[in-house]
Design a protein that fits this description.
By secondary structure, this protein is mainly alpha-helical. It contains eight helices and three strands. The chain has a three-stranded mixed beta sheet, with helices on one face. Helix 8 (about 255-270) links the parallel strand 2 and strand 3 (about 275-280). Helix 2 (about 30-55) packs antiparallel against helix 3 and helix 2 packs parallel to helix 6. The longest helix is centred in the middle third of the chain and has 30 residues, at about 140-165.
Length: about 290
C-alpha cells in the first residue's frame, strides 16, 4: 500500500474519532473529550497537509508558478496552527467556567471511558500505519508524532474518566481539558511561528551570516561578499543569493571554479541547497552586508 493510501485511511479513521468524541463530549458533558477531539482535529488537519504536500510535490513548476507549490504545506500549516490556537483558548475558557459548576453537571463517565478507549485503539493503529514512512520522511514523521501525542492524550482522558467514575473526583475533567488546551497552544505556537518565519523569509535557524561571510572571504579568490539574502523556500530547501567581489578581473567562463568552491563550502557547512551568485570586480557600489 502506498503512503498516500495509508494516509487516506488514517485520515478517515481520525475523522470518525473526532466526530464521535465531539458528540460524546456534548452528550456526556465532558470537556476533556471535546478538547481531545480538537487535538484529534489538529491531527486530521496535519494529515491533510501531509497528503496535499505529497500530491502537490508531483506537480512540476510552470511559467506562472516558477516555484511550483512548494509553499502550500507551509501556508496550510500557518492557517491550521492559528485555528488550533483559537480553539485551544476556547477550550481553556470553557473548562474554567465548567470547573465552577462541576457539581451541577452530571458527567457520563462510562461514555468518556469507552470513547477514550476506542480513541486509544484507533490512534494506536494510525501510529502503526505511519511508523514505517516516519523513518524516511520529515513530513510523515511530523504526522506520526502528532498521532503518537494524541494517543497519549487519549490515555490521559481515560485516566480522568476512571478517576471520576471510581473516586468521584469531578474536577479532573476540567483540569485535564485545561492542560490539553495549554499543550495545544504550546505545540501549535511553535508551528505557527515556524511557518511565519518561512513565509516572511526570515534567515533560517542555524545560519550565522557573519560566520558565513568570514568563511567565504577566507577563499583566496574572494575579496568581499555582500548583498546577502538567505531564506527557506519550504521546510527543507534553503536558498542564498549574494554579490561576490573578486580580487582579479576574470572572464565569466573563469568564475566557474570559484563558484564551485563557494557552493561546496555553503552546502557542507550551512546546508544551503540553492545558491545564486553575482560576481563583480572593481565595481563602485554599496558593499553593505545586508541590502
Amino acid at each position: 500500500m502506498k503512503k498516500e493510501s495509508r494516509l487516506k485511511w488514517v485520515i478517515l479513521l481520525n475523522i470518525i474519532i473526532t466526530v464521535s468524541q465531539i458528540v460524546g463530549g456534548i452528550v456526556g458533558n465532558s470537556m476533556a473529550l471535546i478538547s481531545d477531539a480538537m487535538h484529534n482535529f489538529s491531527d486530521v488537519a496535519a494529515l491533510f497537509i501531509s497528503l496535499i504536500a505529497i500530491l502537490l510535490a508531483k506537480k512540476e513548476a510552470t511559467y506562472s508558478k516558477s516555484f511550483g507549490y512548494k509553499r502550500a504545506e507551509v501556508l496550510a500549516a500557518f492557517v491550521n496552527s492559528a485555528f488550533i490556537i483559537a480553539v485551544a483558548i476556547y477550550i481553556i475558557i470553557e473548562s474554567i467556567q465548567r470547573l465552577q459548576i462541576t457539581q451541577i453537571l452530571e458527567i457520563n463517565n462510562d461514555l468518556v471511558i469507552w470513547l477514550a478507549g476506542i480513541a486509544i485503539i484507533a490512534n494506536g493503529l494510525s501510529v502503526l500505519f505511519l511508523a514505517r514512512d516516519a523513518k524516511h520522511s520529515m513530513n510523515m514523521k511530523s504526522a506520526f508524532l502528532h498521532l503518537l501525542s494524541d494517543t497519549l492524550f487519549s490515555v490521559a482522558v481515560l485516566g480522568g474518566g476512571l478517576a471520576m467514575k471510581y473516586y468521584g473526583v469531578a474536577w479532573v475533567d476540567g483540569v485535564l481539558s485545561i492542560l490539553i488546551g495549554v499543550y495545544l497552544i504550546a505545540t501549535s505556537w511553535q508551528l505557527l511561528w515556524g511557518s511565519t518565519k518561512i513565509l516572511l523569509q526570515f534567515v533560517p535557524e542555524g545560519i550565522n551570516i557573519p560566520r558565513l561571510v568570514e568563511e567565504v572571504e577566507h577563499l583566496n579568490e574572494v575579496k568581499n561578499i555582500h548583498h546577502i539574502h538567505v531564506w527557506q523556500l519550504d521546510e527543507y530547501t534553503i536558498h542564498l543569493e549574494a554579490h561576490v567581489d573578486l580580487r582579479e578581473d576574470l572572464k565569466v567562463s573563469n568564475t566557474h571554479e570559484i563558484q564551485t568552491k563557494i557552493e561546496e563550502l555553503l552546502h557542507t557547512n550551512f546546508s544551503i541547497g540553492h545558491i545564486t551568485l553575482q560576481f563583480e570586480h572593481g565595481l563602485e557600489e554599496n558593499k553593505k552586508l545586508i541590502q
